[in-house]
Fold:
Amino acid sequence: QLTAEAALGDRPGAVVALDPRTGQVLAMVSHPTFDPNDFTHGIPVKTWKELTTDPMHPLMNKAIQAQLAPGSIFKIITGTAALETDSITPDFSIDCRGQVTIYGHTFHDWHTHGVVDFHKAIVLSCDDYFYTLGKMLGIQKIDFFADHLGLGRRTGIDLPDEDSGLIPSPDWVRRIFHRQWWPGETISVAIGQGAVQVTPLQVAYVIGGIASGGVFARPHLAFAQELEKLGVDPPADSTTRFPLRESTVQAVTSGMWGVVNEAGGTGAGARCPGLNVAGKTGTAQVVSAGLQNSARLQQYRNNGWFVGYSPSPDPDIVVAVLVIRGEHSSVAAPIAGEVIRAYYQEKEKNANPAQLVSQVTNGASPASGAPEP
Structure:
């Protein structure tokens, strides 16, 4: 928790760390925040006005209430859907030329990547590849997999006022805007833009579940042991399963490993020497590129995302980082790396006394029983 707070620092955003095997929240940070003591004996009008008019919303728990476009992190959802529906195989390739025309509209990539297959498309975060998958899949399949993987709904964490995010669909457009779905909207959704909204908690929950083969443990803050000490029955563990093929999990997690560890990977900032870290970056536009270029105001800066986990696959920690107006995911990736590194340092420190007893009992030397990261 302390590492997550220090790593995020004064930047507006959130950090969420989970144990995806149990759903236990390992760290949760939201910044800026407020001092609860201000409310103890009634809050001054001036202070209340400052809190409620601050554009960074200090009264909002951004870990569970900041609903923002995830950008390229959503490519993991699109890619999973494409593999699971046999729309593609991992060797499906395109020649990325920096833009692609679909439905009469030209969609731009952030870079020209050349020939890319599924693995390389994740590592390099190739937009053109996932634009193509969006057209192949259609919005109904993307919506189906996003829903069954846990987006567009509350995770069920034991905190009040969790928001559900949004996965747009033709039904949603008809209900809210009284119009038909535009095909081009599917292409934007495929790369986590458009009306897609997620919370940092959802990102950690969903990516941890995918890396675990489609097993999603409900997040919770309360420790069962502490509740039992207080005479309170802990809530029953709640696990949702949406089984994914082993080949799908292998392809997706291999790509996310490459994001952190391979040449050109967009998440190299999360790399931790000696640890097996994987992840995915996301840079989400707040406004159009044209408006950004014409007015480089702070409120128009992109939001930076990163979600990382270790080990890969079958992680025991997953960390989602959101830096609001962080401009690029390169700001978020090192924060996740610091939290993952601190988790294993603490785990090793706590494991050593028991290990030494075991080693003495079994006649092994301490050096031979060093814990694996």
User: Anything to note?
Assistant: The chain has one domain: 2-369. Residues 103 and 183 are 7 Å apart (CA to CA). Confidence is low (pLDDT under 50) at residues 287-295, 355-373.
